[in-house]
Amino acid sequence: MIAALQQQYALVQSSRKVVLSFIDAQLGHDLNTPMPAFNNQPLRYFLVHNADCYFHWLAYFALKQPAKLISNEDFTNVALIRQLYTRADDIVARFLESFKDKMEVPVEGHHNRAGLVSITPLQLFTHVTTHEFHHKGQIMTMCRMLGHVPPDTDVIRF
Fold first, then answer.
1. pLDDT tens digits, one per residue of 5-44
2. Where residue 87 sits, what CATH number does that domain have?
3. Which domain holds residue 131?
4. HSE-CB for 81 with a 13 A CA cutoff
5. Which of 41, 56, 98, 124 maximizes the CB count within 10 A of its CB?
């Protein structure tokens, strides 16, 4: 199962690379432009939020690493955001290695909104990757709203 999840995550990384390369080459200052249709959040907010989701669920919740707050305002360009995702990639690798033989064994912990949560590592992995793709769709919509036509980041590429 772990080999399949590693392959799946490689596809996520590949799609993310296309997104970040496009944003880096095409958006410029629009990376930080507040978007009224998205609660006045800039596009970068969702990129940072996605990475933070990996930290929150995989590092802090499942691996029980000490939580470190991430300030969205600290990541105002693509180079810094790429560094954040390099850290997220490391967390995913550690997570998959740590749970390779127990992907169906529930992990328990406290969630600040839900209280005590019991969830399997497979469910956590599925959550963080689908969460990233959900927001990637919003990010591509934001690009269009800002006047930039995004590349295909999904099926055709795979």
1. 999 999 999 999 999 999 999 999 899 999 999 999 999 9
2. 1.20.120.450
3. 2-145
4. 22
5. 124
Contacts of 42 (CB under 8 A, 6+ apart): 31, 32, 33, 34, 35
Q: Is residue 156 in some structural domain?
A: no
| pLDDT tens figures, 81-92 | 999 999 999 999
Hey, what are 23's tokens? 């944003």
pLDDT of residue 61: 96
Q: Which element (helix H / strand E) includes 111?
A: strand 107-111
- For residues 50, 105, 108, 123, the Cα torsion angle rounded to the nearest 10 degrees is 30
Residue 154 pLDDT class (50, 70, 90 cuts): confident
The total domain count for the chain is: 1
